[in-house]
Design goal:
Structural class: alpha/beta
Helix content: 25-40%
Radius of gyration: 19 Å
Number of helices: 9
Organism: Nonomuraea solani
Largest sheet: 8 strands, mixed
GO molecular function: S-adenosylmethionine-dependent methyltransferase activity
Strand content: 15-25%
Strand order of the largest sheet: 1-7-8-6-5-2-3-4
CATH topology: Rossmann fold
CATH class: Alpha Beta
CATH superfamily: Vaccinia Virus protein VP39
Protein name: Methyltransferase domain-containing protein
Order of helices and strands: HEHEHEHEEHEHHEHHE
Keywords: Methyltransferase, Transferase
Pfam families: Methyltransf_11
Number of domains: 1
């Protein structure tokens, strides 16, 4: 029996979207993963680090899933529900969780960490990252690239400017902060949404795809998309991801 729009919208509009666990979408949406395997590469680097900082950690899901954490591990997060989840997951692993507003200045001294990481940061404060890295330390991050999920954004709110997250801009910003980019990779990845509930949940959780999104505000377009999925099958979009690794030179900071 097919579920109605009202049933799907109510379910997806009321379920918790705290943290960065997307398992609620299993069987309802899918997304290809970047070929480089961020979690595996992150685990390799964490196992070799002495002091690491994970910025905008969300609910701490990525760090908590790693087999080894450095002797000193610190994570920052700004959103209170995610902060509580991160603390519950990471404190038993010996990690510190710090409330931060995701904007400069980072609440740490100069040259404290030999590894700084972030997965899908809202913004990257390159000068601050360079400041808290030790000479020879690295920043390692998987980021959202340009025009990510643009097909869905444009269906809901129309044409928009999806630029501003190009990998080459990130490289320029890193180098301007005195860092040397040692790895930069970019991929576009297929996504499928199999019902309108998956769309609503995704837009509630990933708030920058449709700024100001709500089920009520965008009901007309959501109902139209529901009818389209029912008639034609999954709605297809493409995410955009890039991997960047930048090293602070061994000499004095630039």
């Amino acid at each position: 029996m097919r579920r109605t729009y009202d049933d799907l919208a109510h379910e997806a509009g009321t379920v918790s979207v705290d943290g960065w666990d997307f398992s609620w979408l299993n069987g309802r949406a899918s997304e290809e993963r970047p070929s480089w395997g961020y979690a595996r590469l992150l685990g390799d680097r964490m196992a070799r680090a002495r002091a690491a900082l994970d910025l905008q950690t969300g609910g701490g899901e990525i760090l908590a899933g790693l087999p080894t954490l450095p002797p000193i591990t610190v994570a920052t997060e700004s959103w209170p529900p995610n902060l509580a989840l991160a603390a519950a997951r990471l404190r038993p692993r010996g990690a510190w969780v710090v409330a931060d507003d995701d904007e400069p200045r980072l609440p740490f001294g100069n040259g404290v960490f030999d590894l700084v990481t972030s997965r899908h940061p809202v913004a990257t404060w390159w000068a601050e990252i360079a400041r808290v890295l030790r000479p020879g330390g690295t920043y390692f991050s998987q980021q959202v690239g340009p025009w990510s999920v643009a097909e869905l954004t444009e269906f809901i709110i129309g044409p928009h400017d999806g630029t501003g997250r190009e990998p080459d801009r990130a490289q320029e910003a890193a180098e301007s902060a005195g860092l040397e980019v040692v790895d930069l990779r970019y991929e576009r990845l297929r996504m499928e949404f199999h019902d309108i509930g998956a769309v609503i949940y995704f837009l509630r959780k990933v708030i920058w795809i449709v700024p100001g999104f709500s089920v009520e505000r965008h009901e007309d377009r959501l109902r139209e998309l529901h009818d389209r999925i029912e008639a034609e099958g999954p709605f297809v979009a493409h995410s955009s991801r890039f991997l960047i690794e930048a090293r602070r030179p061994d000499g004095p900071a630039a």
